């Protein structure tokens, strides 16, 4: 799935970034660029962070924009 | 579900809007931007169980780069017109196979109940073998068509559109999917939307821009 249309970043890349420790959409942007331009994919980025931590049975320290 | 060019790129997204009919009226007035990116058809399915939820597929004739298509102003304008502030994840892929369990249907045919799933599987080729081996079971479950698309950005990612005889069969299918329907297990995880159960609402043909 293409998550960030501005940069062409896919869910595969975002999942890797989250698995490597990103806990906020800002951290995802810093790691791969997703969400850094128009910002209209940030809701999806946050949902992916939440889903990752739900699947792994713990909560991120904080979920922020 | 209706028949279109088997070799074209398909974009698909699942999102929510406040007013589906109003959205469609606006979109019909803005065909030119879609034509500029090579779109030939837009199909809109509306959810049966979740008001405002839609599944949209856009068939595109030829695309040099899917990323160029996705970042084009036409796509952003399309979401603006749809009234979607947040842009949902978009599936971009090509058809693997369109299996019609009861023989070909006329071009103008549109599906009854459509179950749409975006998901990942272990191996698309192995999946297709399992699907073909399970055709009779699928029939018994009320499945009439199975359209399989494979993502361009991830060879394990698929979108499956199934036409199912009626809503009751669709519910049974979701509650107890066939073992061959591997795609059902990852729906709703991460960027993947939950299973979409809807019906055909609108089709828009877009003339080729000369």
Summarize the structure.
Chain A has 65 residues and is mostly helical. In chain A, 48% of the residues lie in helices and 8% in strands. Chain A has helices at residues 11-19, 25-32, 42-55; strands at 2-4, 9-10.
Structural commentary:
By secondary structure, chain A is mainly alpha-helical. Chain A contains three helices and two strands, in the order E-E-H-H-H. Chain A has a two-stranded antiparallel ribbon. Chain B is an alpha+beta fold. Chain B is 26% helix and 33% strand. Chain B contains seven helices and eight strands. Chain B has helices spanning 20-28, 31-36, 66-70, 73-82, 124-133, 135-140, 167-175, and strands at 9-16, 39-47, 53-60, 91-100, 113-120, 143-151, 157-164, 196-205. Chain B has an eight-stranded antiparallel barrel. The longest helix of chain B has 10 residues, at 73-82. Chain B is globular, with a radius of gyration of 16 Å. The relative contact order of chain B is 0.23.
List the helices and strands and how they pair.
The complex is a heterodimer of chains A (65) and B (210).
Chain A: E1 2-4, E2 9-10, H1 11-19, H2 25-32, H3 42-55
Antiparallel strand pairs in A: 1-2
Chain B: E1 9-16, H1 20-28, H2 31-36, E2 39-47, E3 53-60, H3 66-70, H4 73-82, E4 91-100, E5 113-120, H5 124-133, H6 135-140, E6 143-151, E7 157-164, H7 167-175, E8 196-205
């Amino acid at each position: 799935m293409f998550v960030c249309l501005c940069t062409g970043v896919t869910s595969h890349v975002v999942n890797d970034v989250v698995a490597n420790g990103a806990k906020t959409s800002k951290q995802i942007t810093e790691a791969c660029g997703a969400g850094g331009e128009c910002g209209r994919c940030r809701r999806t980025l946050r949902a992916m962070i939440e889903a990752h931590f739900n699947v792994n049975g713990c909560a991120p320290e904080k979920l922020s924009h | 579900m209706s028949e279109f060019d088997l070799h074209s790129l398909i974009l698909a997204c699942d999102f929510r809007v406040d007013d589906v009919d109003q959205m469609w009226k606006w979109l019909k007035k803005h065909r030119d931007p879609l034509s500029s990116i090579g779109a030939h058809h837009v199909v809109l399915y509306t959810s049966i169980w979740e008001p405002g939820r839609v599944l949209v597929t856009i068939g595109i004739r030829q695309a040099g780069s899917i990323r160029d298509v996705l970042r084009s102003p036409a796509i952003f304008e399309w979401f603006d017109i749809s009234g979607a502030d947040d842009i949902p994840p978009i599936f971009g892929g090509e058809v693997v196979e369109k299996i019609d369990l009861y023989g070909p249907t006329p071009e103008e045919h549109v599906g009854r109940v459509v179950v749409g799933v975006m998901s990942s599987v272990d191996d698309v080729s192995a999946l297709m073998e399992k699907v073909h081996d399970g055709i009779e079971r699928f029939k018994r479950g009320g499945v009439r068509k199975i359209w399989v698309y494979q993502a361009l950005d991830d060879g394990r990612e698929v979108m499956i559109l199934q036409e199912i005889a009626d809503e009751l069969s669709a519910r049974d299918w979701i509650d107890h999917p066939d073992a061959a329907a591997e795609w059902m297990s990852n729906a709703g995880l991460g960027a993947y939307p939950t299973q979409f159960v809807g019906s055909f609402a609108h089709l828009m043909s877009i003339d080729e821009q000369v």
